[in-house]
Structure formats: C-alpha cells, structure tokens
Write a structure and sequence with these properties.
This is 4Fe-4S Mo/W bis-MGD-type domain-containing protein. Belongs to the prokaryotic molybdopterin-containing oxidoreductase family. The protein is of the alpha/beta class. It has 25 helices and 33 strands. The chain has three domains: 209 residues, Rossmann fold; 245 residues, Dimethylsulfoxide Reductase, domain 2 (3-Layer(aba) Sandwich), CATH 3.40.228; 125 residues, Barwin-like endoglucanases (Beta Barrel), CATH 2.40.40. Bound molecules: ligand MGD (2 copies), iron/sulfur cluster (SF4) and molybdenum atom. The site of iron/sulfur cluster has 12 residues, from helix 1.
C-alpha cells in the first residue's frame, strides 16, 4: 500500500489530492490541504476508485458488426492493430475522396472531464491531418468567459483576486457545485469581509448568504446588467478616470452606434487610422492613435464622455457622440422599474447592487455557464463586461487579474494548418468572431454538413469522449447524421448513447492510469504559478490506452509521426514543459507540484491587453460591428418570447454529484441523486396541482421530458430548473436508465435558437410548460436506456 500526492483531474477545480494504492488498485482519493486548492474536494473525487474500477469500463477495442440503428450493434472484440489500421485507412479514404476537412475531430470538455491531458495533442492531430474542424462544446461552455471576453478586454475575463477583493460578483456561476476550489477561496474572502453579489434564478450555493441575491428570470440577464450599469452611470457611481484613460468610451461614434469617426493621420511610424475624441475644454475633436495608444495632438485634459455633436467629417456634417454616451443611452432604456418587470429582480435591489459595486470595491467578477447558454450570450456577456468596466477594477489588485502561470510549449498545432485552411472551419462564414475562428465546430454545423453537405461534405468523426446526444440541443438531426457518417470512431472510458452509433469504440485509460500536466489552478499568484505533473498510479485497466497514446499511434499510421516526436511520448512531455526551465525529473520528484515564478521578461503579461498600458478596453466593439453585430449591447427582441402555451422559463444547472452525462452508474454518487429532478417554486407547483415528489412532464415547442418535482422557494417563481444528462442505469442500486427521448433535457431545446455571434444554444430561458404526470412512468424495456438506440 502506498500514497501518491497528485491532483484530481475530473473537473476544472483540479483539487490537490492524495491517492492510496493497494495491490495495483486505487483504493482511496482524499484532499491534500497543502495544495494551492487548500483542501477543496467533492463527492466525485471521493468516488474516483469506483469510477476507475467500474465493471462498465471499456476494456478492449470494439468493432460494430451490425448496421447502425440495430438494437444490437454486435460489438466484436478486435486487436489494437486492427482498430488503428481501420481508423487510419478509413480516415485516409475520406480524405482522398472528400478532402481532409471532411474528417471532424471531436473532443469532450476539459472543464468537466480529464481530457485536458490530451486536449492539445488531439487538436494537433486534427491540424497535422489537415482538418481545421474540432467538434467541441465551447459555445455553451467556456467561450464567453475565455474568448468572447476578448471583445471587451482583449483577453479572457481573468481570475478574481480573491485575496484582495472587496466585492465579488458571480453571474450565472455556482462554484459550490462547479468549482469547489473557487467556492473555498470565495468563502475565505467572505470571512475577511468581502461582499458577495450573486445573479442566479436559484438561490444555490454561496447565494444563500450573499449580500445580494438577484433572482433573475432565466435568459434576461443582459437587460439586468444594462439596468445596473444605468444606475451606476446615473448616480455617478463609476470610475470616470478609468473609462477616460483605459477604455475607448471617449471615442466619437456616429449616432446610434454606427462606425467610429476615423481619419488618416501621420504617426511616428507612418500613416495610420486615428479615432477622434472630444476635448470639451478646447471645444475641438482630437485625433487618437489606438495602436500606439497616444493622442496625436495635445491630449485633452478631460476627454468628454458626454457630448452631442455635429462635426464636419470628410466634407459632410456627421452627428456623433462619445461611445460612452451611447452606452449610457442604451442603459437608460432600462430604468430599474422597467428592468424589474422584465427580469423579475426588484427595482430597489437593482439600485442597491449598483451602490454596492461602487462602494465595496475593489470588485472582482466571474460569469460562466448561466450566461454561456443563452440565445443572446455574446451581447449578454458584453453587457456584464461593460458593467464591470464601470468599476475600473479590471487588471488591478482585488479585481480580475491575469497572474503569470508556468509557460508551456504550444502544442495545438495551428501552425500545421495550410494557409486558408482555418477559414474552412464549419460555421466560419456565419460566425467569424465566434468559435469557428479557433476551429471549433458546433453540433448544428456538424450535422448540417453530414446531412446536406453544406458548405461541404463531412464523412468522418474521430471523437475523444463527448456525448452530444445528451448534451447538445439538436438530437433529431444528430442521430441521422451519426448514422450517415462513413466512419465514426469514438474513444472513451465508457460506452455512451452517442458512442453506440460508432463503427469502432476504443477503450481509454482513466486519468489515474496516465500522466497529465497542470499549469496552474487559476487561484492567485501561487495557484496560478503551480506546475504539477500527475503521475499514473496504477496500470491501464484492460487494454485501455491514454488519449495521448492513441493520438501518437494514429499519427504514426497516418504518416504524421514526425509531428509527434515519432511516437515518443516522453520526448513530447519534455517538449511541453521545456519553457518552464524545469526538468521532467524534477517534476517527477515533486508529485505535489511546485511553484514556477517567472521573471518579468518571461512573463507574457505584455501580450495581454489588460496589462499593456497602451491598449484600451473595448467599451465599444469595432470587431462586432465589422461582423455585422451590435457594437454596444442591444437586446431588441432576440430573447425567446413566452406565450400562453409556454408561459414559464426553463433552465438547467450542474449537479454536485455528476459531470454532465457521466457518473450516474457510480453507486455512491447515484445514491445521492437517484432520479432526474426539476426544481419548482411551491407557489407555481400549487397552481399546477404538483406536489413534492410527483413526476412531471416539462414541455416546450419542440419536445418534452419527465422529471421528479422538487419544490423549493429558493428559485425565481416562474423559472423551472430541470436536470440534464440522464441516461445511464445503476444496477448496483437497481435504478433505471433513460432512453434519449425520455428524460433528456436537450430534447426540449431547438438547435436553431442560437446566439448569432457564437452559436451558443438557448438552453437557459427557454419557454416551457409544466404539468403533473397523471401516471407514473412505468419501467419499460426502453428504460434500460443503454440498449435501445434507434436510428
Ligand atoms: N459537479 C460538476 N462540476 C462541474 C461540471 C459538472 O458537470 N458537474 N461541469 C464543468 C463545466 S464543463 C462547466 S462549463 C462548469 C460550469 O459551471 P457553472 O457555470 O457554475 O455551472 P451551471 O450550474 O451550469 O450554471 C451556474 C448557475 O447558473 C444558473 N443559471 C441558470 N440559468 C441562468 C440564467 O438564465 N441566468 C443566470 N444568471 N444564471 C442562470 C444556475 O442556476 C446555476 O446555479 O462547471 C464545471 N464543473
Ligand atoms: N442541458 C444542458 N446541456 C448542457 C449543459 C448544461 O448545463 N445543460 N452544459 C454544457 C456544457 S458546459 C458542456 S462542457 C457540455 C459537455 O458535453 P460532453 O462533452 O458531451 O460531456 P459529457 O456528457 O460529460 O460526456 C463526456 C464523455 O467523455 C468521456 N470522458 C471522460 N473523460 C474522458 C477522457 O479523459 N478521455 C476521453 N476520451 N473521454 C473521456 C466520458 O466517459 C463521457 O462519455 O455539455 C453541455 N450541455
Ligand atoms: S471538485 Fe471534485 S471532481 Fe472536481 S477536481 Fe475537485 S475533487 Fe475532482
Ligand atoms: Mo462546460
């Protein structure tokens, strides 16, 4: 029996752990209090031995022998050689006939699985292969906090400086469930007096003791953010100096958020496009060079934030005003009372929240999936970001910051794509500033390309995890698309309803059977600089192999070995950590991790606009304007409308005991949450004749699901919060599974209701109805879930 210090890789929290191994078996995983995650932990981490030694683990490669859609796929055990040869030759054939982009590579989420270990290599394989297309749930997951935030900040939203913050704003983010290390850090901040504001239709987690819990009606967040921002502006509760100096708020823009007024000007390094700012004292417009970050004539003492102007521009009179004023005007459309009627948050709370943000700083903030799954996700994220700009705290002590992390080599392999190839990504032409800009494809575009060859044919899918039939909204198109593929290879620890459509399923080693590198846990200076090599503590179960090993083997067979260190994973690992200056052997000798502080010249801080003094934050987004979107947040009717038939707002949230559609077969976890549940307010339930524990049917215009009613007054009265991800049975507890059209939340959502700029689907705020089921759903053949896959 021995113990190994490590971290749990099952979710974003990456809690420090100590694993106990006995006779080749993982017997216990417990928290490591000395790790930067400070002893955070959860039931899933504790259940890791059950996951690792589950008798449902895939043990050998399985080849389909019967047609897709047949209830019995007729899985045949094949050797790895046969499996890898099959994969390489079928992917090769698709490329020969239809081009490399006809093969899509899939990947599950690194925030809710351990696929982070292979994430970079999987992308590298796609790119070396010549396909830009990676099917990845980013648009509903991390896009808006990590990438769409660049539309405002030029970077991700960064991390809250928990140690110094005066006030935390959590918007559609419940770390008590989704990121225990953050919940712990936030709780510590609370103990030393930091204030907390939570915007969530449910009073979940830390919201229970927040200074302000804003019970927003699901899907109406953008308007709420504008209303709070409006109060701050009206009362002067914002950092005017920051807006003047650090944002493009003073830039003059044609009225109604048209183009910025620009002129060609000569700068120290040549002719460049300059923007104009109004100097109120001298009553004249002054040119400003946005690239150089300086005024091209005498800088105004106080650049105007408000001014209604008519300027002569290119010989024409042009009506314009500072971008900030136009933002203020848009906010003023939502005075607290009006916003209260739309969002369900009382007007006095909107005002109090504005006051708190002004008085209790420095303010830090975080938003996540509550925002990322809305029909207006990009504009909503922008509205929250602009509200945050008003506090003036981005990048400063106690605000949101980018702490340096250990530098790793970039292995994603974008440089391997031929010129023009990335632009071929499915969805690029519709969403040039969205996930396709990084090669990430959503399930709508994937299904469309398979079924209709638009914009070109897709014939192959090689997926590393993921279960889109339970996690994506367009199941009616996805099922036929999966059936229509020439080749679908799925690599996973477990069989799942999506993998059941594969031609070949490959067994993946669990994270306790393989290595992984973590470059930081996004917690303060110490946590961000924490570099840790997670070592395998037991051998791969059965014939399973790590994702990375599968990638490296396939690369060799595809003739791409030279891009993958000729299959030498150890060399690859050395390459990955080389920029840290720390030898692999040193990392191995420190399984608990070590802090890697970078000298300033190593720091990539200057690459981050938030830290580069000359770069201004984009209060007004020219990138969105160029992409045909609103450069200042607007919410003109894109939100989903309620109706008499569907008068309630449907939403969803993560479970403490499961990640998405995983883990439901693990007895200790399933025992804590036995059936798909739906949270309802008692008042709403009473009106519908629903009692606690009743089965209810939730219905939308496109589908329905069954769930068990859980009455709670900790939810906004007309929001319905149902669980997702239910399919798997748990024989150990004699609990059933569910067919994909039975208790599948995502059957309730139309794939077409999506954010224009990111493609995020409207899984939050969807119009629905709820009725009591007259009869309890009897266990039926299809309740076995796992075996009834029909095409
Ligand atoms: N236990 C567990 N942890 C996980 C995961 C998991 O599946 N299980 N998944 C990981 C992944 S991939 C992700 S992306 C993160 C996500 O982490 P979070 O964003 O924290 O997760 P969610 O629970 O989806 O959403 C957060 C909150 O948004 C609220 N919400 C719902 N609708 C709305 C709305 O319309 N507006 C607002 N303002 N709030 C709303 C929900 O009630 C919920 O409390 O969690 C990661 N961690
Ligand atoms: N209704 C609703 N739908 C949602 C969400 C929601 O909040 N509500 N959240 C969305 C979000 S934020 C996300 S990120 C997506 C997630 O969507 P998916 O990526 O489809 O996630 P999972 O359902 O967790 O499926 C993960 C699969 O990958 C496998 N797996 C786990 N670890 C590994 C590994 O290391 N390697 C390999 N090869 N496989 C592995 C698991 O066994 C499982 O089969 O779901 C989205 N869907
Ligand atoms: S929160 Fe749970 S699942 Fe996530 S890393 Fe920590 S122990 Fe693992
Ligand atoms: Mo996610």
């Amino acid at each position: 029996m021995h113990e190994v210090r490590s971290y749990c890789p099952l979710c974003i929290s990456k809690c420090g752990t100590i694993s106990t191994v006995d006779g080749g078996r993982l017997v216990e995983v417990r928290p490591d209090p000395s790790h930067p995650t400070a002893g955070s932990f959860c039931a899933k981490g504790r259940a890791a031995p059950e996951l690792v030694h589950s008798d449902r683990r895939l043990q050998v490669p399985l080849m389909r022998t019967r047609p897709k859609g047949d209830a019995d796929p007729g899985w045949r055990r094949v050797s790895w050689d046969e499996a890898l040869d099959f994969t390489a030759s079928r992917l090769g054939a698709a490329t020969e006939q239809h081009g490399a982009e006809s093969v899509v590579f899939g990947v599950t989420t690194p925030s809710g699985t351990a696929v982070a270990d292979g994430f970079g290599w999987i992308h590298r394989l796609a790119h070396a292969f010549g396909s830009p297309n990676v099917l990845f749930a980013t648009e509903n997951c991390n896009w808006h906090k990590d990438f769409a935030s660049a539309l405002t900040f030029g970077s991700s939203i960064g991390v809250p400086d928990f140690e110094e913050t005066g006030c935390m704003l959590f918007w559609g983010f419940n770390p008590s469930v989704s990121w225990p290390a953050y919940a712990k850090a936030a709780t510590r901040a609370r103990r030393r007096g930091a204030r907390l504001i939570v915007v969530d239709p449910r009073r979940a987690g830390l919201a229970a003791s927040a200074d302000q819990w804003l019970p927003v009606r699901a899907g109406t967040d953008g308007i709420l953010a504008m209303a709070i921002a409006g109060c701050m502006i009206e009362h002067g509760w914002y950092d005017q100096d920051f807006i003047r100096r650090r944002t493009n708020g003073p830039m003059l823009v044609r009225e109604n958020a048209g183009e910025a007024i620009s002129v060609e000007a000569s700068t120290p390094i040549g002719q460049r496009r300059a923007l104009m700012v109004w100097d109120a004292q001298r009553r004249r417009a002054v040119a400003y060079d946005p690239v150089g970050g300086e005024y091209l004539e005498e800088a105004p003492e106080e650049p105007a934030l408000f001014a209604d102007l008519t300027l002569q521009h290119q010989g024409q009179p042009v009506r314009c005003s500072p971008a900030f004023q136009q933002f203020a005007d848009l906010c003023a459309q939502y005075p607290p009372e009006r916003a209260a009627a739309i969002c369900g948050v009382p007007a006095d709370q909107i005002l109090e929240t504005a006051r708190l943000l002004h008085q209790a700083g420095p303010v830090s903030f975080f938003h996540w999936a509550g925002i990322c799954q809305q029909a207006d996700a990009t504009q909503t994220g922008r509205a929250i970001s602009l509200l945050y700009l008003l506090t003036g705290c981005f990048g400063s002590v106690g605000g949101n910051r980018h702490f340096p992390s250990a530098p790793l080599n970039d292995i994603m392999g974008f440089d391997l794509l031929a010129t023009g190839c990335l632009e071929q990504t499915l969805g690029w032409s519709e969403r040039p500033v969205g996930p396709p800009a990084k090669g990430w494809v959503n399930s709508n575009d994937f299904a469309n390309a398979v079924l209709h060859e638009e914009p070109y044919a897709v014939k192959g899918l090689l997926s590393f995890g993921a279960n889109p039939l339970l996690t994506k909204p367009n199941i009616p198109e996805l099922v036929p698309a999966l059936c229509a593929l020439d080749v679908y290879v799925h690599c996973d620890l477990f069989m799942n309803p999506t993998a059941a459509y594969a031609d070949l399923v490959l067994p993946v080693a669990s994270p306790w059977e393989r290595e992984g590198v973590s470059a930081g846990v996004q917690l303060g200076a110490r946590g961000s600089a924490w570099l840790q090599l997670r070592q395998a503590v037991i051998p791969p179960q059965g014939e399973s192999r790590s994702d990375t090993a599968i990638v490296f083997e396939l690369a060799k067979r595809l003739g791409l070995g030279d891009r993958f260190f000729d299959g030498d994973q150890r060399k690859a690992l050395r390459h990955l950590v080389a920029p840290t200056g720390i030898a692999l052997e040193t990392l191995e000798a420190h399984p608990e991790g070590l802090r890697v502080d970078r000298s300033p010249d190593q720091s990539d801080a200057l690459k981050r606009p938030s830290d580069a003094p000359q770069r201004r934050f984009d209060l007004y987004s020219e990138s969105l304007l160029r992409a045909g979107e609103a450069p200042l947040p607007r919410f003109d009717g894109a939100e989903l409308r309620l109706s008499e038939r569907f008068p309630l707002r449907l939403t969803t949230a993560k479970s403490s005991f499961f990640c998405h559609s995983q883990h439901h077969a693990l007895a200790t976890l399933r025992a804590k949450s036995t059936e798909p549940g739906v949270e309802l307010h008692p008042e709403l339930a009473r009106r519908r004749g629903i009692e606690n524990g009743d089965w209810v049917r939730i219905e939308t215009a496109v589908g329905s699901m069954r769930a068990r009613a859980r009455l709670t007054s900790r939810i906004s009265a007309d929001t319905v919060c149902a669980q997702y991800g239910w399919w798997e049975s748990c024989p150990a507890l004699d609990l059933p599974g569910y067919a994909i059209d039975q208790s599948n939340y995502n059957r309730l959502i139309a794939g077409t209701h999506a954010d224009r700029s990111s493609g995020s689907s409207a899984m939050r705020g969807y119009p629905c109805s709820v009725e009591r089921e007259s009869v309890d759903p009897a266990p039926s053949a299809c309740l076995s879930g796992e075996t009834s896959w029909a095409c």
